[in-house]
Design goal:
Oligomer: single chain
CATH topology: FAD/NAD(P)-binding domain
CATH class: Alpha Beta
Helix content: 25-40%
Number of strands: 27
Shape: globular
CATH architecture: 3-Layer(bba) Sandwich
Mean pLDDT: 95
Length: about 550
């Protein structure tokens, strides 16, 4: 094979997802530093990506999405669960549901207590603030002027207002800012949407700087292997448009491919658990037993009702009305296409003896078809939907290479609902969903429960429904986790244990799941990582 002479950069970033875009921006800020950013996907310049409601279109589109599937799960009736991950500039931030949720302070204090110095809530709050451009202004908890725009919803739907009123009547407080002092309560979601357009990490961090002369961005560039000299990573081999290239790093290779692809690339490069590598026919370069192990993800189920009035969003998705909505979005950035899939969040405790919220709910004034355990297309009739997931799942799974071929998807096994506590929490969450949807203000609009349906009543029946119908919330973490124990993959500086020349910077390093959607925390991780990296540069 004829491989051109290796290119040389100070830093090579693998993956232009949420973390990769942050690093590309921060590291290339110095004109004396050269940066190569490699992305296996293509451009994010497409209406499906730009329109917030385009989430429903990118979900199954292989132009923007790896479209993975899990292995058959023992806790989900041996189903394969569709498992989307972003394959486009911006990564999963370009196909996500837009929600900006940081989690509880306790999440990060737990990381610190596990021996990860510098990762307590007080340590990481400045990085959340630095990343943020909050539309409502700066506070102790929020920043302005940062690359990532965070806004409030542009339209308070009448059904949302009824839902909030009913939930408050249950004694659940309205929480004006779940990203501040406390999370518990009900609130409109904060969203990564600006002027009615998706504001991904690519739009916040990468596009404003992509013309810097010291930043080289290559799309359709699939990294084949990490190149090693002993236990030092020196560069990468990648394929772009059918040609194989090599690139060397003067300083470091930064692996930002996400909780699925980061451990997979390490494994196909010979770095990981010896038994996993040998079973896949891969020569062991560096035995590191934690690579790919400990996968955590949020697993969601939904309750939906048909309503008796054309008041939901469903009737705005068809015919002349849809044409009007498209025109309104193009002209003003408002209307149906500017909505995130979820409008309202509720954070509750599954049991009175639980100290902090462990259940997260999403309410939408619309109903959808079910598609492989996830939201499909809008239903043809009016409806409402409430989804639920346990924020701190106990079940653990893995990501494992099947062959040495980096183009073959790995085995992804989240092991949803194999832990008894997870099962108990999801059942309590479904019971809460029904309570939240059948409050006095909502009752006059309810016609029938679509899912799980009136015949599903006992806890055993609810658990059976959860096993048969749930799906991922697209929040995989923990497969290259940070720590100082034998199963840790990186240390608190995000350097791979007993290796040089490489760090991992993405959601895979999270030691435990945050009580939140994971995008905000991933941006924070990358912001902190940029300081860790730059502090090592010679002055």
């Amino acid at each position: 094979m004829d491989i051109p002479r290796a290119e040389r950069f100070d830093y090579i970033i693998i993956g232009a997802g949420s973390a990769g875009c942050v690093l590309a921006n921060r590291l290339s800020a110095s004109r004396n530093t050269s940066v190569l950013l490699l992305e296996a996907g293509g451009s994010d310049n497409h209406p499906y990506v730009r329109a917030p409601a385009g989430f429903l279109k990118t979900f199954h589109d292989p132009r923007f999405n790896w479209c993975f599937n899990t292995e058959p799960g023992p806790g989900v009736d041996s189903r394969r669960v569709f498992f989307p991950r972003g394959k486009v500039l911006g990564g999963s931030s370009s196909i996500s549901g837009h929600l900006y949720v940081r989690g509880q302070a306790r999440d990060y204090d737990t990381w610190s207590e596990l021996g990860n110095n510098g990762w307590s809530y007080d340590d990481v709050l400045p990085y959340f603030r630095r990343s943020e451009d909050r539309s409502t202004g700066a506070t102790h908890y929020h920043g302005i002027g940062g690359p990532q725009h965070v806004s409030d919803i542009h339209e308070h739907h009448p059904l949302c207002q009824l839902f909030i009123r009913g939930v408050e009547e249950l004694g659940i407080p309205l929480n004006p800012d779940y990203n501040a002092t406390k999370q518990e309560g009900i609130a409109y979601y904060q969203r990564m949407i600006k002027n009615g357009r998706r504001h991904s990490a690519a739009h916040g961090y990468l596009h404003p700087v992509k013309r810097r002369s010291n930043l080289c961005v290559k799309t359709k560039a699939h990294v084949l292997q990490l190149r090693c000299s002993g236990r030092e990573v020196t560069g990468v081999t990648y394929r772009q448009l059918g040609r194989v290239h090599q690139a060397d790093a003067n300083a470091e290779v930064l692996l930002c491919a996400g909780a699925i692809s980061s451990p997979h690339l390490l494994q196909t490069s010979g770095i990981g658990p010896a038994d996993t590598l040998q079973a896949a026919g891969i020569e062991v370069v560096h035995e590191l037993p934690g690579v790919g192990e400990g996968l955590q993800d949020h697993y969601a189920v939904r309750v939906a009702y048909r309503i008796n009035k054309r008041l939901s969003l469903n009737h705005r998705t068809r015919g002349i009305r849809l044409g009007w909505e498209i025109s309104k979005w193009l002209l003003s950035g408002r209307g149906l296409l500017a909505f995130s899939p979820a409008h309202i969040g509720v954070f509750l405790r599954s049991q009175p003896n639980v100290n902090e919220p462990d259940l997260q709910f999403v309410f939408t004034p619309a109903s959808y078809s079910q598609s492989e355990g996830a939201i499909g297309t809008f239903s043809s009739f009016p409806g409402i939907t409430c989804g639920i997931w346990q924020m701190r799942p106990q079940s653990r799974g893995f990501v494992r290479a099947k062959t040495p071929d980096p183009f073959q998807a790995p085995a992804i096994q989240p092991n949803y609902l194999v832990d008894e506590k997870d099962c108990q929490s999801i059942v309590q969450g479904l019971i809460w969903c029904r309570r939240l949807l059948t409050t006095k203000p909502m009752l006059a609009y309810l016609e029938e429960e679509l899912i799980p349906g009136k015949d599903c009543q006992s806890e055993d029946e609810l658990l059976s429904y959860a096993r048969s119908s749930g799906g991922t919330v697209y929040h995989p973490v923990g497969t290259c986790r940070m720590g100082n124990d034998p199963m840790a993959v990186v240390n608190s500086n995000l350097e791979i244990c007993n290796m040089g020349g490489i760090r991992i910077v993405d959601a895979s390093i999270m030691p435990t799941m945050v009580s939140a959607n994971t995008l905000a925390a991933t941006l924070m991780i990358a912001e902190k990582a940029s300081d860790l990296i730059l502090s090592r540069q010679p002055q």
